[in-house]
Specification:
215 residues, TIM Barrel, 2 domains, three-stranded antiparallel beta sheet, two-stranded antiparallel sheet, 9 strands, binds zinc ion
Length: 215
């Protein structure tokens, strides 16, 4: 709701959304919202403002920690170090709509001229369907072409960005299970922030989580 506030009016009854395409209105009540999320099989269900636990599948004997609105790859690494087990965030889809792909070392901006005649996939090491099927050049043409191509590029890059972040979390999980999580954190932060240029807050946060830099 917060990220859609431009298109929404909140009342006692629910939230009235205005469709960005044709301006038509739709009233989303808490009941409708929860019904839709149940049909989707959501792991987290939000009745507009409130987080409601879902009849999901929490691992026996383990607490689940859910973090909303995170985020950037380096933020995910830090939050995992603090015990977060689940995330949701618009970032991978929103940055995709701006024509940007998450790749090792930063963002690849598909709209840039450098991608016009680049016939490699977004990320040669990525197993996603976008990287298996399309070149940077093709995505550049879609993202720069206007019209529906821009939306299609956004969808294709969303698939990639979600695959990138789930891959990152999968590797974190493997490192935790293998007992090498601190080393993995240091290596990952070095990959994510080339040149050791990572923010001071993340160094301080990781030190507080028992993973000081460069040890
Ligand atoms: Zn990919």
């Amino acid at each position: 709701m917060v990220s859609l506030s431009r298109f929404a009016v909140v009342s006692e009854e629910g939230v009235t959304f205005q469709a960005p395409v044709d301006g038509s209105e739709m009233l989303l009540t808490p009941e409708v919202s929860v019904g839709i999320q149940n049909q989707l099989g959501a792991d987290f269900i939000m009745a507009l403002d409130n987080v409601v636990s879902s009849p999901g599948r929490p691992p026996v004997g383990q607490a689940l920690r859910y973090c909303m609105g995170v985020g950037y790859p380096e933020d995910l690494v830090v939050c995992v170090a603090f015990g977060t087990t689940m995330f949701d965030c618009v970032y991978p889809a929103r940055t995709a709509r701006f024509g940007a792909a998450l790749v090792p070392g930063g963002l690849l901006k598909l709209r840039s001229a450098a991608c016009a005649a680049d016939f490699r996939p977004v990320d040669p090491s990525c197993p996603c369907s976008t990287c298996a099927t399309y070149t940077r050049s093709y995505l550049h043409a879609l993202a720069r072409g206007g019209g529906e191509g821009v939306a299609v590029a956004g969808q294709l890059l969303t698939l990639h960005n979600v695959a990138y972040l789930t891959g990152l979390i999968r590797r974190a999980r493997t490192a935790i299970l293998g007992g090498v999580f601190p080393d993995w954190v240091r290596a990952s932060m070095a990959d994510l922030c080339p040149g050791g240029d990572y923010p001071q807050w993340s160094s301080e946060a990781l030190a507080a989580a028992g993973i000081p830099r460069g040890v």
